[in-house]
């Protein structure tokens, strides 16, 4: 008796502002948690961003970001719920000594944030019934950045979760001189745009799947949030259904981005 396939093969093409990306994916045929779709959407984002980087480089604006430059690792990084769950799973899969170091640095960050009255506000942000206004978020971002608090996942200015880092970290690239990044509040930088904002896509997907508000989860509290919502991470959907819904959110995001881009070029 032949065993039925456990995955289904798909060829996917997406038109982005930087050009078309095509990729082949294997999708589980059974029921899987939302974290199963995170690597796939990240791949879409990275392939689209590679096209944008190539286009920017051809225009004489190559990325100035490089390994060991961790200036942006003092910023407040937002995650979607699926990313927070995926990060929690990744950390839990690491050797115990690495987990211990991460836990210790997170505890240090929590102590610092508590002393500044920011921990409670960041924790409240995770479970807010609706996202705060942009000006309120900007104020919180500035307060956090003023602390110059190194990301808890940095070791000697090198990211220890590079393969599992949040989409916001992957998408932040600049072509301006590196020294401008020493003070991102007072210095202007030249960002290289990301055609697909992966965290936005995953956040919209989670909102639809769970009929809950879009979650904006700050990185310092992400593991605590994921642990506190562990039951939600036990929910499963058919792999193909997750893919269909994720692609729908990606296509909608790209359509709106292309529309805004076309409107801007007309002006």
What can you tell me about this protein's structure?
The chain is mainly alpha-helical and 267 residues long. The protein has one domain. It is built from 9 helices and 8 strands. The strands form 4 sheets. A two-stranded antiparallel ribbon has the order 1-2. The protein is globular, with a radius of gyration of 19 Å. The relative contact order is 0.21. The mean pLDDT is 91.
What's a concise summary of this model?
This protein is mainly α. The chain has one domain. It contains 9 helices and 8 strands.
What percent of residues adopt helix (DSSP H or I)?
40-55%
Distance between the termini: 64 Å
Rg of Cα set: 19 Å
> Beta-strand percentage?
5-15%
Shape: globular
Order of helices and strands: EEEHEHHHHEEHHEHEH
Mean pLDDT: 91
* Overall number of strands: 8
The structural domain count equals 1
Largest sheet: 2 strands, antiparallel
| Content-based structural category | mainly alpha
Low-confidence stretches: none
Helix count, per DSSP? 9
> How do the strands of the widest beta sheet line up side by side?
1-2
Topology summary:
Elements: E1 7-16, E2 19-28, E3 31-32, H1 38-58, E4 78-79, H2 81-92, H3 96-115, H4 119-126, H5 134-146, E5 154-155, E6 158-159, H6 167-171, H7 198-210, E7 217-218, H8 219-228, E8 237-238, H9 239-266
Antiparallel strand pairs: 1-2, 3-8, 4-7, 5-6
Helix pairs in contact: 2-8, 7-9
